[in-house]
């Protein structure tokens, strides 16, 4: 399959040593078999976000919310990073100043080898005590009887960011600082509808970064993008890196 050709500006920025920021959303994991949220076949097509991804829903019906997240954990565990996750990890290895800000909670970027990552919407792989807020890593395939409980007896919740909750201040602050310094921003697989994450490329654009959107569909962020590469990330991203560095070198 052939995709739109990357501009010479993009290729020069990739080959150079300027700060790079990558923002990803659910679309990057679509080719790993994980559903996106919006659009046909999306998670929110069959599920009402207000009854699954809000603190109020958890307070009202923790079992239903936990069944949803136990299913998401099982799907994520069975999934593998795809060529787009791997291309971002390869780009990080080539880059000096680099940050990956992901809205995804599936952990696939880390499994692909990305290291400089901030998780804007938290992660499926940490649990938080609803009484004292303490967190612990939990990678188990089977959480046992749902909803899981803390040793103190209180309910545990997934350490993800639900609607109406603040993003982790450190992660969001790092992403905004990186946006203000970046010369190149890749916006991959996000509908750009959820704030404040969607404001990150806008901040970068205002600071003069070259913003490239990789997505088969246009989004509200297409308006501020300097370049759009329309297509699935697992096809487009490796092709862009190969155009910049050659087929042999691109994946090192
Ligand atoms: C491909 C592809 C392929 C397909 N390759 N691409 C300003 C305006 C309006 C509203 C607000 C605002 N500011 C805040 C709000 C409210 C709200 C919000 O944004 N609402 C809008 C939806 C209307 N935001 C919040 O509530 C946030 N918190 C907040 O603002 O707090 C304020 C506060 C401050 C201080 C104290 C207290 C409060 C929190 C937002 C949390 C979002 N949480 C979720 C769930 C996380 C846990 C979980 O995973 O279950 O995060 S919702 C869901 O949407 C998830 C995602 O991370 C997020 C973004 O979705 P994403 O990744 O963009 O996916 P999709 O499905 O939307 O798009 C996929 C894209 O991929 C599409 O474009 C496809 O075309 C593309 N694609 N295949 C490349 N192969």
State the main characteristics.
2 domains; binds ligand BJW; six-stranded parallel sheet; elongated; 9 strands; three-stranded antiparallel sheet; 17% strand; 34% helix; SIR2/SIRT2 'Small Domain'; alpha/beta; 252 residues; Rossmann fold
Report strand order across the widest sheet.
3-2-1-7-8-9
Distinct helical segment count: 9
Please name the fourth-level CATH homologous superfamily of the largest domain.
Answer: TPP-binding domain
- Topology-level CATH name of the largest domain: Rossmann fold
Give the CA-CA distance, first to last residue. Answer: 23 Å
Low-pLDDT segments, ≥5 res: none
* Mean pLDDT rating: 96
CATH class annotation of the largest domain: Alpha Beta
| Oligomeric state | single chain
The run of helices and strands is HEHHHHEHEEEEHEHEEH
What structural class results from the helix and strand content? alpha/beta
**Hey, roughly how much beta strand do the residues contain?**
15-25%
Main β sheet profile? 6 strands, parallel
Count of folded domains: 2
| CATH architectural designation of the largest domain | 3-Layer(aba) Sandwich
Bound molecules: ligand BJW
Would you count the extended β strands for me? 9
Notes on the structure:
By secondary structure, this protein is of the alpha/beta class. The chain has two domains: 8-34 and 81-121 and 167-245, Rossmann fold (3-Layer(aba) Sandwich); 37-78 and 123-160, 2-Layer Sandwich (SIR2/SIRT2 'Small Domain'), CATH 3.30.1600.10. It is 34% helix and 17% strand. The protein is built from nine helices and nine strands. It has helices spanning 8-15, 43-46, 55-60, 62-78, 83-94, 108-112, 169-181, 199-206, 233-245; strands at 20-24, 98-102, 117-119, 122-129, 135-137, 156-160, 184-188, 210-214, 227-229. The strands form two sheets. The chain has a six-stranded parallel β-sheet, with helices on both faces. The chain has a three-stranded antiparallel β-sheet with strand order 5-4-6, with helices on one face. The longest helix is centred in the first third of the chain and has 17 residues, at 62-78. Bound molecules: ligand BJW. The site of ligand BJW has 34 residues, from loops.
């Amino acid at each position: 399959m052939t995709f739109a050709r990357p501009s010479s500006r993009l290729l020069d920025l990739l080959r150079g040593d300027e700060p790079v920021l990558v923002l990803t959303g659910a679309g990057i994991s679509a080719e790993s078999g994980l559903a996106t949220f919006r659009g046909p076949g999306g998670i929110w097509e069959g599920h009402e976000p207000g009854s699954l991804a809000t603190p109020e829903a958890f307070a009202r019906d923790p079992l239903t919310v936990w069944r949803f997240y136990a299913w998401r954990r099982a799907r994520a565990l069975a999934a593998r990073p795809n060529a787009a996750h791997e291309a971002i990890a390869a780009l990080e290895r080539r880059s000096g100043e680099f940050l990956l800000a992901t809205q995804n909670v599936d952990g696939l970027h880390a499994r692909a080898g990305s290291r400089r990552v901030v998780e804007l919407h938290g992660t499926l792989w940490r649990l938080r005590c609803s009484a004292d807020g303490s967190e612990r890593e939990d990678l188990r395939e089977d959480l046992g009887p749902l909803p899981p409980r803390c040793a103190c007896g209180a309910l545990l919740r997934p350490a993800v960011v639900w609607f109406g909750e603040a993003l982790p201040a450190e992660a969001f602050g790092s992403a905004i600082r990186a946006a203000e310094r970046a010369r190149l921003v890749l916006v991959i697989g996000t509908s750009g509808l959820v704030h404040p994450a969607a404001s990150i490329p806008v901040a970068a654009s205002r600071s003069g970064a070259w913003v490239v959107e990789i997505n088969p569909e246009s989004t509200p962020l297409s308006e501020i993008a300097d370049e759009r590469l329309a297509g699935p990330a697992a096809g487009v991203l490796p092709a862009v890196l190969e155009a910049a560095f050659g087929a042999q070198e691109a994946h090192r």
